[in-house]
Design brief:
Elements lengths: L1 H12 L7 E5 L4 H17 L2 E8 L5 H16 L3 E6 L2 H8 L3 H20 L3 E3 L4 H14 L3 H4 L5 E4 L2 E4 L7 H11 L15 H13 L6 H30 L1 E3 L2 E5 H5 L3 H14 L9 H15 L5 E5 L5 E5 L2 E5 L8 E4 L1 H4 L7 E4 L5 E7 L15 E5 L7 E4 L6 E2 L8 E2 H7 L4 H4 L4 E3 L5 E4 L3 E2 L12 E7 L2
Parallel strand pairs: 1-2, 1-4, 2-3, 4-6
Antiparallel strand pairs: 5-6, 7-8, 8-11, 9-10, 10-11, 12-16, 13-14, 14-22, 15-22, 16-19, 17-18, 19-20, 20-21
Helix pairs in contact: 2-8, 6-10, 10-12, 12-13
Length: about 475
């Protein structure tokens, strides 16, 4: 019966196909020994090959060595290739300061991936079963989780150019122990499983028995929850990717999107889209805990909050959130350097067609040229915005191209008095990050002549008496 159940699971999930090769991770406990025997029994029928891999962590001395000898003897008795890794984990943990379980898992998975590469295996079979799945889901519930965490362990997932498969996720521990007993399969019980200094062990030995008072079939309920959430989590993930493709664009080493478009998404999709962005930026809260919730929810609320049109806040891992009117940007912090460049009359009169030019930090280009004939100056672009023409002889050189300074004012054509450059930037809805690197053109006396791309001043304007023209253009993204 157990063989048929596993056969169906392998076929339904496509875990192993004819011609494939799998490395079976066998510790020596009843779970992995049952997995080995079941896969061996099905290998001829389903047409896949097996290699047995065992890790001796060196934690339990002779007990570990005995497990290794038992697994090797049984594997070779089945006619299967056997690989073993001898690790001095106590020394490794002492030298690196890593925790025991995390360090052991890291080294164990590295050995399994190496073994798979050596023998050309595309799959690594692990012995996690239904009880492990239930414990995993409950641990994540206690820690704080979302749909991804409630999905538990997947039957198949990618790892280091191979696929990790878990053919036993629908079979409980009791059935596996019974299978070993009925088939005469040897196994060893790891004495560390009874030690309560591991969180998972305390959960298994203390918490789960207590909760069974409320639901005798607790494990079944948690496994069903994981199964349901895997489907719903996959749906949300696909929907978030579709929203990303539709709404998000790469920008400044990060990602930008429209606040209004984000507002139109369902709450669940808003959260998933933010998490996806953080994942792509390699700072996604992989752990579904308080930190992950606080980070994603903090960003979501910052996007939706009614408040100043320009705002920013620091995120994790050297990222910053920027809200600039309808534009939302998540990228590395922006620390622009102020700049100052001079335009001498000699440089501008070296020729026509852009004798002087400057590429600005925002990627745009500013050009200046002097000509006696206005018609030879560039004519494309919007007057006062993309291009400006001045009476060259009334200008005070050298001109400067610099970043805005506090107190800058401009006398605009057609208006009485002066207006603060800062207020003009706000009126134009120029994002705060752009304001810091937006060029301001001034004359030799410090008067603002032009805000490229925005407005021209009333200083040194062209008249009927003008004989020499200074033309400037502002082009680029």
């Amino acid at each position: 019966m157990l063989t048929a159940k596993m056969r169906n699971h392998i076929r339904e999930e496509g875990l192993l196909r004819p011609g494939e090769h799998a490395v079976v991770a066998v510790s020596g406990g009843p779970d992995s020994m049952a997995l080995l025997h079941l896969l061996w029994r099905l290998s001829g029928e389903l047409g896949f090959a097996l290699t047995v891999a065992h890790v001796n962590h060196g934690f339990r001395g002779e007990e570990s060595d005995e497990e290794e000898r038992m697994v090797e003897a049984y594997a070779r008795g089945l006619g299967l290739a056997f690989r073993v890794a001898h690790l001095d984990m106590p020394a490794y943990i002492r030298d690196t300061g890593r925790t025991g379980q995390a360090a052991s898992r890291e080294r164990r998975y590295a050995f399994l991936a190496e073994t798979a590469a050596d023998c050309g295996a595309a799959k690594i079979a692990l012995a996690h079963h239904a009880d492990d799945q239930a414990e995993t889901v409950l641990m994540r519930v206690l820690r704080g989780t979302g749909p991804q965490g409630l999905s538990g362990m997947l039957a198949e997932r990618s790892f280091a150019n191979v696929e990790l498969i878990r053919p036993l996720l629908r079979i409980n521990k009791e059935a596996l122990v019974g299978y070993c007993r009925d088939e005469g399969i040897p196994y060893r019980i790891d004495s560390s499983n009874a030690k309560r200094h591991y969180t998972r062990n305390r959960l298994r030995l203390d918490t789960m028995p207590l909760l069974r008072q409320y639901n005798p079939r607790l494990e079944d309920a948690l496994v069903r929850l994981a199964d349901v959430m895997q489907g719903e989590n996959a749906y949300l993930t696909d929907a978030a990717k579709a929203a990303f493709d539709s709404l998000v664009r790469p920008e400044d080493g990060g990602f930008a999107f429209s606040r209004k478009a984000f507002q139109g998404l369902h709450l669940a999709l808003q959260r998933r889209l933010i998490k996806l962005l953080l994942d792509y930026l390699a700072v996604g809260p992989d752990q579904q805990d308080d930190f992950g919730y606080v980070l994603t929810e903090g960003i979501r609320l910052a996007v939706l909050r009614v408040g100043p049109p320009n705002a920013s806040l620091d995120l994790a891992a050297n990222l910053r959130f920027y809200r600039e009117y309808d534009r939302i940007l998540i990228a590395a912090p922006h620390h622009p350097e102020p700049f100052l460049h001079y335009i001498t009359e000699e440089a501008a009169t070296a020729g026509t067609g852009g004798a002087w030019q400057l590429v600005l930090p925002n990627g745009r280009t500013l050009r200046a040229a002097v000509a006696s004939d206005r018609n030879v100056l560039p004519a494309e672009g919007r007057n006062g915005r993309d291009r400006a023409i001045f009476d060259c002889d009334s200008l005070v050189f050298p001109l400067t191209v610099r970043t805005r300074r506090e107190g800058d004012r401009i006398r605009l054509m057609g208006l009485k008095g002066v207006k603060k450059v800062k207020d003009i930037f706000i009126d134009e809805k120029l994002p705060s990050r752009e304001r810091a690197v937006w060029p301001v053109v001034t004359d030799g006396e410090g008067r603002v002549l032009w805000l490229p791309g925005i407005r021209q001043s009333s200083h040194s304007t062209v008249t009927e008496e003008t004989s020499r023209y200074l033309g400037m253009t502002f082009t680029g993204p």
